[in-house]
Write a structure and sequence with these properties.
The protein is of the alpha+beta class. The protein is built from eight helices and eleven strands. The longest helix is centred in the C-terminal third of the chain and has 26 residues, at 241-266. It is globular. 37% of the residues are buried. Residues 156-165 have low confidence and may be disordered.
Amino acid sequence: MIRVGQRLGKYRLKRRLARGGFADVFEAFDTLERVTVALKIPLAEQLTPELRADFEREIQVSAKLQHPNIIGLKNADEIDGVLTLAYPMGERSLDQRLRNRMSLTTILDYAEQMLEALAYAHEQRIVHCDVKPDNLLLFADGSLRLCDFGLAKPCVNTMLASSSGTVGFVAPEQAMGRPSARSDVFSAGLIIYRMLSGSLPHWPYEWPFEGRDRVRRQAPDMIPLLQRAIQVDARRRFRDAVQMLTAFLAAKKLTVRRMDKRRRRRA
């Protein structure tokens, strides 16, 4: 059993950051590079051949995706018989940041970075399948990076796949085992709505959602984008994050213009 304080190759485990159903994530110190990393270690008792194949796929997908808004895999190795995945260590997750209010400028910045990451993944024909605030890490340089491609799937239009994902951010068709790029769009829409409104929409996802008035006050031009992204019928959403990003940038331009007008009126 892996424990805090243990030495694993060049890594010294400092504290457990999270425990999932299949893996622990530790804050660890790389004694050679002298940097802190996030170390993902599968739970030994859960490491079936199928699960190991999932972790190997995560390694391969993470190594393939090279983008400033996607967490890069620093290293993957088998140390003393233990599979280890080392990633850069963020300051905190978007989920943690959501506990405090954010300015509209910050919200727009985070939303754009998230969509840039997803658009790039979709261009590489990879669907993330678990887009949620916990999987969006914030760094000291102001960057937001999408992480945890453990559930990611190759995209072949709409594919038969597992219904895995995080309840609350899973698109209806993904919950039935048919995720696609449109499923990531749905999750991204929920996250943007949560940032703008302070509330997370719930089934049956019928507009108006709780917090609509707050969204209308500060970013009315985002409402059509969110209405399209958070559709129960996947066919009515943006086809992928590339298309959603284009629509977002147009809505952001109008939103920034409104912000500038408000500032001038107050001056």
